[in-house]
Amino acid sequence: MTADRPPVTTPAASIDPIEIERFSAMAAEWWNPHGKFRPLHRFNPVRLAFLRDRICGHFGRDPQGAQPLAGLRLLDIGCGGGLISEPMARLGATVTGADAGERNIGVASLHAAESGVAVDYRCTSAEDLAAAGEQFDVVLSLEVVEHVADLEGFLAACGAMVKPGGLLIAATLNRTVKAYALAIVGAEYILGWLPRGTHDWKKFVKPHELAAGLRHAGLTLSDVQGVTYDPLNDRWRLSRDTDVNYLMVAVK
C-alpha cells in the first residue's frame, strides 16, 4: 500500500455476520422480480440510469453508445445476486462483483453464466480486496453501508481501491424519522415489500456522515441526489429530497 492511501482496517472488520446471514437466507430470491427483492427490481431502472450517466459524464463517454463503459474496470461491492453487476457488464465495463455471502455469489455466478454475461464474482470483503492492492476506475457501494459493522473502515477500504481520477458512488438510506416511517414501518410492516428486520434504522447513514467518511478515505464529494417513490405510477425517480433514499458521488 502506498503512503498516501488512507489506512485500511483489519480484514473483514466491516462484515456483520448477522446481516450476511439475513441476506444469504434470501439468496434464491434475488432475480425474482415479484419476490423479496421486488423493491430493488423496481428501484433498478433509476439507479442504472444514474450510474450510467454519472460515469459517462465523468469519463467523457456517450451514455447512448452501445457499450459506453468499455475499458473501465468497475467494482460492485456488496453485489448480492448481481442486479447491478450484470447491467454494468452489459454496458461494457469489466466488472468484479464482491459479496461476503457465499450463497449470494453462487446465485449471481449462476445467473451470469445462464445469461452469457461475464462478471468476475468473488466471495470476499472490501478490506481483503484493498489489502490485495485491487484498483478500479469505479467503485459502487449500493444499499450496503447501512449494513456494515464498521462504516469508517469499509469506506477507507473502498476509497483505497479507487484509482486516481476515478469515482465512488454510494447509495443508502438517511437516518431520519421519515426514513423510519417509510423504509421500515411502511415497506417492512405495512406493505410487506421487504421481510421484517431487513433494516436497522440506527445503522442508516446521514449524508454528512457519509460525506465525512468519504473525505477521510481520500475522496472529494461531487454530487448528492435524492431518490423518491411515486406511488401513483409505481416507480422511483430522482429528486432533491434526500430524506429517505439518496445517492452520493465522490472523486479520487
From TrEMBL:
Keyword Transmembrane annotated: no
One function term, GO molecular function aspect: 2-polyprenyl-6-hydroxyphenol methylase activity
Record's keyword terms, sorted: Methyltransferase, S-adenosyl-L-methionine, Transferase, Ubiquinone biosynthesis
GO BP of this protein: methylation
Protein origin, superkingdom: Bacteria
Pathway membership, UniProt: Cofactor biosynthesis; ubiquinone biosynthesis
InterPro entries (UniProt xref): Methyltransf_11, SAM-dependent_MTases_sf, UbiG_MeTrfase
Protein name: Ubiquinone biosynthesis O-methyltransferase
